[in-house]
Design a protein that fits this description.
- This protein is an alpha+beta fold.
- It contains two helices and 14 strands.
- Strands 5, 7, 8, 9, 10, 12, 13 and 14 form an eight-stranded mixed β-sheet that branches. Strands 2-1-3 form a three-stranded antiparallel β-sheet, with no helix packed on it.
- The N and C termini lie far apart (177 Å).
């Protein structure tokens, strides 16, 4: 073999060896790490998350030897749980952000405001008091015929307040009913009634009379969380306790 051929063969062999080394180097895996989060949902509804990383193994070159590869690195159990209790937790990207509470219901706040204030129970008065006579004008009036306004109630970004305006009083007088558009008065000029029959035939010999006040209720709301700026709750009533009233007939003396 000529010296020139030997040189060419050695050069070709060196090129092949260099190419093989480059190819082997390209096939070596590069270690990577991918951060993630592992989270669980506890029985009480809260969420706990821990960071979790996964590494792929790497092989080392040189002398035909390679490094070993590592498996997934498990995070420690979430705070408050043992390793057994933490089995089966599900990874969630980004961890557990706290949930925002929904704004309170405006109408429920209005009902709460009304429950705290309440409507007054009417108190019945008559003149004459306790006993009257047939065909005699009997004055009627009540206590409690007033505007009722609740205290402001706030929750979240809203404040509500309700107002009740008295409209009328319905009198149940035993033998008839009467509606007055006011509280009445002691002199009888605002609201009065003249009985047509005595109460002798009634249980206990007396009428049991009641007064029912009717209020018209509206409400307002201020704030970003209000479902509406206001509303109308219509008519609401409150009735008094029964009040006994004896009605007698006036006896006339004809001289016989």
């Amino acid at each position: 073999m000529s010296p020139t051929s030997l040189i060419r063969r050695r050069a070709a062999s060196g090129a092949i060896t260099a190419s093989a080394l480059v190819t082997a180097a390209l096939l070596v895996p590069i270690a990577t790490a991918a951060p993630a989060f592992g989270c669980i949902v506890r029985p009480d509804g809260t969420m706990s998350c821990n960071p979790r990383s996964t590494e792929t193994g790497s092989t080392g070159g040189g002398g035909g030897s390679g490094g070993g590869g590592g498996g997934p690195v498990e995070p420690p159990p979430p705070e408050g749980l043992t390793a057994n209790e933490a089995v089966g937790f599900v990874p969630v990207d980004g961890g557990g952000a706290p949930l925002q509470a929904a704004p309170p219901n405006t109408f429920e706040l209005v009902q709460s405001a009304l429950a705290k204030k309440g409507l007054p129970v009417p108190e019945v008065h008559t003149a004459p008091n306790g006993k009257t006579y047939v065909r005699m004008r009997t004055a009627l009036w009540v206590e409690g015929f007033n505007v009722v306004q609740t205290a402001p109630v706030s929750a979240g970004a809203q404040t509500v307040q309700a107002t009740a305006q008295p409209r009328s009083v319905t009198w149940n007088l035993g033998e008839d009913k009467l509606v007055c558009q006011n509280a009445g008065s002691k002199d009888g000029k605002a609201c009065s009634y003249a009985y047509k029959r005595s109460s002798a035939g009634q249980p206990g010999g007396k009428y049991e009379i009641t007064a029912t006040i009717s209020w018209h209720i509206t409400w307002t709301c201020q704030g970003a969380d209000c479902d509406a700026p206001g509303g109308d709750l219509g008519e609401h009533t409150m009735t008094s306790q029964p009040t006994p009233l004896i009605v007698s007939e006036i006896q006339t003396n004809t001289g016989r």
